[in-house]
Amino acid sequence: MPRPDLLAAVDLGSNSFHLQVGRVVDGQIYPLDALREMVRLGAGLTAEKRIDRATQARALEALERIGERLRGLPRGAVRAVGTNTLRVAKNAPQFLREARTALGFPIEVIAGREEARLIYLGVAHSMPHAAHKRLVVDIGGGSTELIIGRALDPLLTESLYMGCVSYSLAYFPEGRIEKQRMKKAELAARQELAGMVREYRAAGWEHAVGSSGTARALESILRENDFSEEGITREGLDRLRSQLIKHERADPDRIAGLRKERAAVIPGGLAIMLAVFDELGLERMAVSEGALRHGVLYDLLGRVQHHDMREATVTQFMRRYHVDAAQAERVRSLALKIFDATNAEPRELEAERLLLDWAARLAESGLSVAHAQYHKHSAYILSNADMPGFSRMEQQRLARIVLAHRGKLGKMQDEGLEGSDWTLVFALRIAALVLRNRTDAPFPLLRVAGDDAGYALDLPQAWLEENPLAAAALETETDYWKAVGMRFSVNSLSEKKVAQLRS
Fold this sequence. Notes:
Blueprint: E1 6-12, E2 16-25, E3 28-38, H1 53-70, E4 78-82, H2 84-88, H3 92-103, E5 107-109, H4 112-126, E6 133-139, E7 144-150, E8 153-160, H5 164-171, H6 179-203, E9 207-211, H7 212-224, E10 232-233, H8 234-247, H9 266-280, E11 284-287, H10 292-304, H11 309-320, H12 325-342, H13 350-362, H14 374-384, H15 392-403, H16 421-434, E12 447-451, E13 454-460, H17 461-466, H18 468-482, E14 487-493, H19 495-502
Parallel strand pairs: 1-4, 4-5, 6-9, 9-11, 13-14
Antiparallel strand pairs: 1-2, 2-3, 6-7, 7-8, 10-11, 12-13
C-alpha cells in the first residue's frame, strides 16, 4: 500500500473534539487544516457514569461534520482516539458504535498513560530540540496528564482523574466562584497529585510546559490582563484567582482574554493548575502549541513509515516476560502461513496480520507467572499492562486472542470475539498445538480452508502417523470448535495425493 501524503488525527476529548490534518513532506508533518468542535462530552456524564442522550446527539453531529472533511482519505491515514469520558462512561460501547458510523472511521479509546505518551510526542515535535528534561502538563476536560521527558522520549507518565470540565461541575455549580469553593477545588487537586509528586521531583526537569486548551486559555488571560508577560506564572495565576473570586464568576465581559466558550470550565482548570504549581514547586510554565492530536499524527506517521511504537512495545514485553524468542518465532511464522492460506487476499488484511503476529509473540508471556494455564496469565498481562502505542481496544482484542489460543473454546463465547477474530484464533491455536515439541522440525501444511462455518486442514497421512500426539490433539480440536458452533476437520492425504499437490 502506498504511503499516504495526508494524515489526519481526531481527538474526542472530554471538552472539545479536534481534527488535525497534516501533509507529510520528507518525514515531517506540516499542518494543513484544523477543526474544533466544542462538544463538552464530559459535562454530559450523569451521576451513573452514562453520557446523556442530548450530549450524544451533539457529539454525533460534530463527528458527522469532521467526517465530511475526512471523506476520501484511506483508512490507514486517519486515527481517531477517545479519552477520559469514553474511558469511564458505562454506555461508551453503545455510543462508539454510532460515533464510528458518523465519523466514517474506527475510534480507539486510549488509556491514560497512552494519552500522556502521545501528548508528550505532540509537544516534543512542536518545540525546538533540547537535551534537557521537560515537564509537560496537560489539563484536559476529564483528566490531567503529567509527563517528564527528554527529546522525543517520555520518561515518566501519569494520568490523573481530574479535568477542567469535571472540576468546574463539581466545585463551581452554576458557574458561581467563591473563595471557599476555589480552596476546596485546589485541595482536591493537590490530593490527587500527592501520590506522584515525590517521584517527579526526584526525576527533576529543566523547564515546565503546558499543553492543550486550559494552558493556552490561561496564558491568553494572563497576557491580556498584564498578569504575565510570557507564559503562565505563579503570580499571574494568583492574580487571576483573585479576579474570579471578586467577580464571583468567569465573565468574558469583565475578564480580558477569556473566550465565551471557555468561561464555564476555566475555574476548574485554574484550580488544577494552581495545585500543580503548588505541589511541583513551579514559578513559571511555557505553553506549547503541540497537543494530543499532534502526537497522534506523529505516531501515525511512524506506523505508515514502519516505525511503529507497538512493535517496540512487543519486543520490550518479550524481554520483560522472558519469552522464548525462538519458539515465538516458530509459532508466529506458522500462524501467519495458516492465516494467509485461509484468506484469499491476506495483504489486504495487514492490520489483522499484525495483530496475529503480536499475539503469537506474546502468547507465552504468562509463563513468567506460572506454567499451569499460562494463557490466562498472558491474557491478564496483555489486558491490564501499560502498552505504549496500543489503544485499550487493541489490548483487549489481543488479550482475547491469546486467551483463546489454548484450552476449550466454550469459554470464549461471552468474551466478545469479533467475526474476523476466529480466523486469528484458529491460526494461532493450530500453530501453537503442532509446535508444542519446540523444535525446528517442519510442519507439512498442504492446504487450509476456512469460512464463517469453520476450518479444515489437509495433512499428509504419514505425518499424522509419525506424530500421534499432535494427531490426537487435532482430533480433540473438532470437539472444541463444535462447542462454539463451528466445524473443524483434518483430512488425511495419501503419499500419492501429497505428491500431486506438491507438483
